[in-house]
Design a protein that fits this description.
330 residues; alpha/beta; TIM Barrel; 8-stranded parallel β-barrel; binds ligand PBG; EC 4.2.1.24; lyase; Porphobilinogen synthase
């Protein structure tokens, strides 16, 4: 039967015709305060080296990172997430450079806190950038990770970030017990004010490829499947979440973002903690590559990807596009 469109009782499109109607009814919005910018730090001065696999992202010496922080503040970005990239000669089997009180990240934390008191300073807590073998902790003789020894070093690292003035410690090594170990160390060291953002649900993902280039943190042998999660699993994420909550984390993260938005929604519905998601290096690079080839409109596709994360339930988003997105939002 041929019906005239005018006789439609239910027409979702009625509400899409007028731009003001669309604006009024938009269910989710992006704002610059949603974003956290990851920064790769290197020793030296005046250094700003582009990362080959992440065009548009640079490794910065602390002075150059400060300029980036200034832009983040000017554009309303909430915070920065710091990663230290150190020389091969400074690495050892346990990653001791990561808890040096004059280490790279510690220096950056102090400088950023002093220059930009309004900016949230978050430090990634892990060892893969600091160990000579590139794994996220200490290895035992059989090549497996020794989690107990790793936890002790994680406490040292977290405490030294806290002493430098970090606001948030973000453990990313998928070590069982990492949240309670860090909480204990922070509290014992009189840093109860420092919060913990747990990489609670972190998958063993191919999308970290460019990061390992950027941070020079690729494992020298094997992979991270003995500690990061299997991309096939969902229930396992709920266990990770429940454990981290029981251990006292303040915020949880799902990582990567785009292929795991179902988990963002799941976590949003299963807990009342803030849920963050991390649009990782490979997600950055694939959008960048397609845009550079002229296949995608960068601005529209990046903003759409970020809006999808908000729609899935993310309270905040860690993204290498933080500065661009904040500018595009005006
Ligand atoms: C450290 C860490 C990684 C990332 C964040 N923290 C690498 C890894 O687990 O191999 C990846 C971030 C990105 O790809 O942008 N463990």
């Amino acid at each position: 039967m041929n019906r005239s469109p005018l006789s439609l009782r239910h027409s979702p499109r009625r509400l899409r015709r007028h731009p003001a109607m669309r604006g009024m009814l938009q269910e989710n919005q992006l704002i610059p305060a949603d974003f956290i910018l990851p920064i790769f730090l290197v020793e030296g001065e005046g250094i700003r080296n582009e990362i080959a696999s992440m065009p548009g992202v640079f490794r910065h010496s602390v002075d150059s990172a400060l300029k980036l922080c200034g832009e983040a503040v000017a554009r309303g970005v909430s915070g920065v997430l710091l990663f230290g990239v150190i020389a091969e000669t400074c690495k050892d089997a346990c990653g001791s450079a990561s808890w040096d009180k004059d280490g790279l990240v510690q220096k950056a934390i102090r400088a950023i806190r002093a220059a930009y008191p309004d900016l949230l300073v978050i430090a990634d807590a892990c060892f893969c950038e600091y160990t000579d073998h590139g794994h996220c902790g200490i290895l035992s003789v059989d090549g497996d990770r020794d989690d107990n020894a790793t936890l002790e070093n994680l406490q040292r690292q977290a405490l030294s970030y806290a002493e430098a003035g970090v606001h948030v410690v973000a453990p990313s090594g998928m070590v069982d017990g990492m949240v309670s170990a860090i909480r204990e160390a922070l509290d014992a060291g009189c840093h109860g004010e420092v919060s913990i953002l747990s990489y609670a649900v972190k998958y063993a993902s191919a999308f970290y490829g460019p990061f390992r280039d950027a941070a020079d943190s690729a494992p020298q042998f094997g992979d991270r499947r003995a500690y990061q999660m299997d991309p096939a699993n969902r229930r396992e994420a709920f266990r990770e979440l429940d454990l981290d909550i029981a251990e006292g984390c303040d915020m949880v993260m799902v990582k990567p973002a785009m292929p795991y938005l179902d988990l963002v929604r799941d976590l949003r519905e299963r807990c009342d903690l803030p849920v963050l998601t991390y649009q990782v290096s490979g997600e950055y690079s694939m959008l960048q590559a397609a845009a550079r080839a002229g296949w995608l409109d960068l601005q529209r596709s990046v903003l759409e990807s970020l809006l999808g994360m908000k729609r899935a339930g993310a309270d905040a988003i860690i993204t290498y596009y933080a500065l661009d997105a904040a500018e595009w939002l005006g």
